Amino acid sequence: WVSHALRSNIAAKLESDDASSLLLASRHVLKGVCDGDLVLDRRNYLIVEDASPLERLLHAKTKLSGRHFLDLFLDADGRQRFLQFLHSEASPKASKTAIPPCLRIALQGADGPVS
Length: 115
Prior knowledge:
Helix content is 47%, strand content 9%. By secondary structure, it is mainly alpha-helical. Strand 3 (107-109) and strand 4 (112-114) form a beta hairpin. The N and C termini lie far apart (55 Å). The mean pLDDT is 77.
C-alpha cells in the first residue's frame, strides 16, 4: 500500500509539473502574438498570477490579480457571450482539429471601453 501511495504521489507531482510547464510555454508563445495574456481560475473566473498586460491595456490604477474577471466586462451581453464561448470550447463536441475560434470582447478600462 505504501508503495502504491508513493507512486501515486510521484505521478501526481509529475502531472502537475507537466501542466505548469505547458502553461508557461503557452503564455510565452501568446506574449509573442497577443497584446497580453491572462490566467483565470476556471471555477470562479478570478484572475490568478500576474495580470500586468491587462492592467496596462485597461490603464488600471490597481492590481487586477485576485479580482473577478467577469466584473471587468463593459456589459452583461459581452459577459454572457464570453461564458458561452468558454462552455462551448470545454464541451467534448468542440473540434480540436479545426482552427480555434476567437471572441472579441469589450472591457471597462479606466478611460472608457477597451476592446
